[in-house]
Automatic annotation (TrEMBL):
It catalyses: CMP + ATP = CDP + ADP; dCMP + ATP = dCDP + ADP. This is Cytidylate kinase. It is found in: Cytoplasm. InterPro entries: Cytidylate_kin, Cytidylate_kinase_dom. ATP binds at G7, P8, A9, A10, S11, G12, K13, G14, T15. Its EC number is 2.7.4.25. HAMAP family: Cytidyl_kinase_type1. Signal peptide: none annotated. It comes from Pacificimonas pallii.
Length: 214
């Protein structure tokens, strides 16, 4: 079974995707980490994120060690990731790796922005996780502070709004719910309740898949 989990920044999609992977015994891919790794590679090289061909070169050559580098979680890396992710050539370069992950025997859980729309449009279950901007800013600020990154609530909120706008307004693979996705608003839900609601949505989608047209 393939489960697609999409949504805006800091909505809780990664937390939900990891919990679903553990619940169903499936491998999980955080696709945002790929875009963040490309961004960090560009930042460290001192290159220009607006240069599409240069960014695509970083997408082809970055080392997998960057996926585990704590600096991919910084505010700056997140902001640059949303600039490089708007380049079609960067997205094309990262496509095969994500499709292959989704196609492995037994299935997988992937989270990102375009999993249900582009990477795995035939996924058995699609979730679009959202939360109000103030709650998302609160969660990300706490997370950044816990990781030792610079985190001031209003600045984090401004970052998230700018990133969401770029992700929604880009021409290639813009952020939007896939057709048939279940919208899961976690604003008023703690992690446990959000995960329970996600499992319920996956079970409902599976039920529909075995009873087509009913
Ligand atoms: N429902 C929730 N209630 C409270 N905190 C949450 C909830 N879901 C996630 N979090 C916390 O918010 C932060 C961002 O969550 P994460 O899953 O990484 O979001 P995303 O993958 O959408 O960026 C993490 O610190 C996580 O523990
Ligand atoms: N499938 C994906 C995943 C991430 N991204 C981009 O990568 C950036 C960082 O993604 P992320 O999932 O790590 O961000 P958070 O939601 O964790 O803050 C996003 O703002 C998007 O611009 C994307 O375009 N497509």
């Amino acid at each position: 079974m393939v489960i697609a989990v999409d949504g805006p920044a800091a909505s809780g999609k990664g937390t939900i995707a990891k919990a679903l992977a553990s619940h169903y015994g499936l491998p999980h891919l955080d696709t945002g980490a790929l875009y963040r790794a490309v961004a960090l590679s560009i930042i460290r090289a001192g290159d220009d994120p607006a240069d599409a061909e240069g960014a695509a070169r970083h997408a082809r050559m970055f080392g997998d060690d960057l996926l585990h580098d704590p600096d991919i979680r910084s505010r700056r890396t997140g902001a640059v990731a949303s600039v490089v992710s708007a380049h079609g050539r960067v997205r094309d370069t990262l496509l095969a790796r994500q499709r292959a992950f989704a196609a492995q025997p037994g299935g997988a859980v992937l989270d990102g922005r375009d999993i249900g729309t582009v990477i795995a449009p035939d996924a058995a279950a699609k979730l679009f996780v959202t939360a109000g901007i103030d709650e998302r800013a609160r969660r990300r600020t706490a997370e950044l502070a816990a990781r030792g990154h610079d985190a001031e609530l209003e600045a984090v909120k401004t970052d998230l709004i700018a990133r969401d706008e770029r992700d929604r307004d880009r021409d290639v693979a813009p952020l939007r719910p896939a057709p048939g996705a279940t919208i899961l608003d976690t604003t008023a839900l703690g992690i446990e309740d959000a995960v329970a609601a996600a499992i319920e949505a996956v079970e409902a989608a599976r039920g529909e898949a075995v009873r087509p047209g009913t």
